[in-house]
Design a protein that fits this description.
By secondary structure, the chain is α+β, with helices and mostly antiparallel strands. The chain is 46% helix and 16% strand. A five-stranded mixed sheet has the order 1-2-3-4-5, with helices on both faces. It comes from Dinothrombium tinctorium.
Length: 178
Amino acid sequence: MKSCYTIRQFAPDDVEEVAILFAKIFTEREATAKAVGASLNEYYTEISKKVCESSAKESLSFVCVDDSLPTGQQIIGFRLCKTFKIEPTNFSESKVAIISNFMNDMAKKWLREHPEIAENEEMQRKVLTFQGLGVKTGYERLNIATKLCLATLKHAKSLDYQHVITVTTAEASQHLFA
């Protein structure tokens, strides 16, 4: 396996590849997805595909690419982001609706703790939300997640974002944000 890789901005053409990788990683490793028993297909359809599509609308997310891999399998890591926004409550009875609603509840809690931002829409547009972070199996411990986060933060700072929020529920991400 090649340990040389590149980090670049997430592009609309990356949506499908990242959505599949996102669903695979999160259903295998992420605590809430495992706790609710989300299948790969459920997670893909109701979360990862939607998150990737929304992330592709803003130039805030990054991917890590290994060009030595076949086309369609070259993305080995991702950091998906969006400008802060409270999403509508998901009234679906699916297992993964619980996850979406939990993330929304955490965003609402953060706003309650920051009334100066809650009451100011302009300031809310200066808040970056980390939505998903993942590294393909076999590429762990190469600092890819850290490099993706740093690239994202540097880019967000250049765009005058003032705050970043994240909910870290996967075991591997706990040490990044402790």
